[in-house]
Write a structure and sequence with these properties.
The structure holds two protein chains of two kinds. By secondary structure, chain A is mainly β. In chain A, the strands form two sheets. In chain A, strands 2, 4, 5, 6, 9, 10 and 11 form a seven-stranded mixed beta sheet that branches. In chain A, strands 1-3-8-7 form a four-stranded antiparallel beta sheet, with no helix packed on it. Chain B is mainly β. Chain B has no helices and eleven strands. In chain B, strands 2, 4, 5, 9, 10 and 11 form a six-stranded mixed beta sheet that branches. The termini of chain B are far apart. The relative contact order of chain B is 0.34. Classes of the chains: A mainly beta, B mainly beta. Chains A and B meet through strand 5 and strand 10 of A and strand 5 and strand 9 of B.
């Protein structure tokens, strides 16, 4: 079974703090993704990485950065947390075989509250 | 512009009935489509994917794809209270990315 883990299930931070969310997958997947999920808005892609040290902006990258130093680990960084970044953050990974059926597998999520 | 549309619901069905969840997409070139189930407070889990026109069955679930109409649906037969969840439709775009709809809330009443 694919296993995607995230460093925290719940996190409370203060405005202006630097926040690190970590994601680790154990299936040697090339692709990793960070989403945020808000009521009524669905999942929105923040950043994704298709290989080590490679990253590409998603639909809502403002206020976020990422790091992928090792294939299994993909970190999301909030440089200066703001209250509008309070959300559920979901990490996903997928293989890249070139097939249309390559599937994304999700971690358990981190519910971040910024006060 | 939203690329994947779903009715937010809630869709309420009695136990044992067929639940029908629908999704439309805007990119005519889309090739593969995924259905995820998400329980409250949990992360999405894959139910099934489909990439050929027609029906694909997996147990109580059937995915239906009509590329000409840009429409994909998920049927759940013999619905159970444990099927109550939010169902997310996702369309694969370039770079192995998925674009998600906002999801349909399904409530199965016993």
């Amino acid at each position: 079974d694919v296993k995607v883990t995230q460093s925290s299930r719940y996190l409370v931070k203060r405005t202006g703090e630097k926040v690190f969310l970590e994601c680790v997958q154990d299936m040697d997947h090339e692709n990793m993704f960070w989403y945020r999920q808000d009521p009524g808005l669905g999942l929105r892609l923040i950043y994704f990485s298709y290989d080590v040290k490679m990253k590409e902006k998603g639909d809502i990258p403002e206020g976020y950065s990422v790091s992928r130093e090792k294939k299994e680990r993909f970190s999301l960084i909030l440089e200066s947390a703001s209250t509008n970044q309070t959300s559920m953050y979901l990490c996903a990974s997928s293989p890249y075989s070139g097939s249309w059926t390559d599937t994304q597998y999700f971690g358990p999520g981190t519910r971040l509250t910024v006060l | 512009q939203k690329e994947v549309e779903q009715n937010s619901g809630p869709l309420s069905v009695p136990e044992g009935a067929i639940a029908s969840l629908n999704c439309t997409y805007s990119d005519r070139g889309s090739q593969s489509f995924f259905w995820y189930r998400q329980y409250s407070g949990k992360s999405p889990e894959l139910i099934m994917f489909i990439y050929s026109n027609g029906d694909k069955e997996d147990g109580r679930f059937t995915a239906q794809l009509n590329k000409a109409s840009q429409y994909v649906s998920l049927l759940i037969r013999d619905s159970q209270p444990s099927d109550s969840a939010t169902y997310l439709c996702a369309v694969k775009v370039y770079g192995n990315k998925l674009v998600f709809g906002a999801g349909t809330i399904l409530r199965v009443k016993s």
